[in-house]
Amino acid sequence: MFKHQQPQSSLHKSQEAGYTIIESLVAMIVVSVLMIAIAPVMAFSVATRVQAKRIEMATQAAKTYIEALRSEALKQGGPIPGFPAPSTTGKELEKTAAPGNINNLFCIDKDSVPLCQADSNEDLVVQGYYFNNLPATTNPAKTGYSLIVRVYRANSFASGVGALKTQNDLQAQQGTTTAGLGNLRAPLVEMRTEIGASDRQGAYNSLCTRINGPTGCQ
């Protein structure tokens, strides 16, 4: 009685096929584990680049706002909203409250929808406060003033975000790597500068008042 034997070449090919399937499964498992391990790093890297670009645009928005004030393209009581609000303190301008109404602030419209919308993740909103220690009836553009500028994302004003903060509140500037995409309640950029006066006599009086108080240079 003869036993039927499988040809040696067929058996060898079958073993090779089996090994190939096992190796493929192991390779797939290894690749999957590696992808799972590096996925958070890749996501954080993308978020960091997005936040860095957003801060770069916010910096440009702040500079545009400051130049608009210096050139008087943005005037107190003018047709464009967003002229800085008066502050009662000079040395602590950084502590002045964060904005609450998006419609009263200067809009940098970056998307296709007109004006700044609270649901936009592209639009930027600029807030300013000024101080010159002069009566409220004085035109600040003629006397000059200290200015602080903050730039927020428009969706920082969306419902549910909560009260907005200043960098002074947070005790730290929002960096490009802050939680990947940053803190919605914090300003992207905060700058302090001086806006020169358009009137020399007014500038002199304003400087004296800011230095010496209500007595001025008397």
The span between the termini is 130 Å
Binned strand content: 5-15%
- Structural shape: elongated
Helices and strands: which structural class? alpha+beta
The number of helical elements comes to: 4
Can you summarize the main beta sheet? 5 strands, mixed
Number of domains: 1
The number of E-state strands comes to 5
Helix fraction bin: 25-40%
Q: Could you characterize the architecture of this molecule?
A:
It is a single chain. With 218 residues, the chain is an alpha+beta fold. The chain has one domain. The chain contains four helices and five strands, in the order αβββαβαβα. It has helices at 8-70, 140-143, 167-170, 200-212, and strands at residues 85-86, 106-108, 124-131, 145-153, 189-195. Residues 175-179 have low confidence and may be disordered.
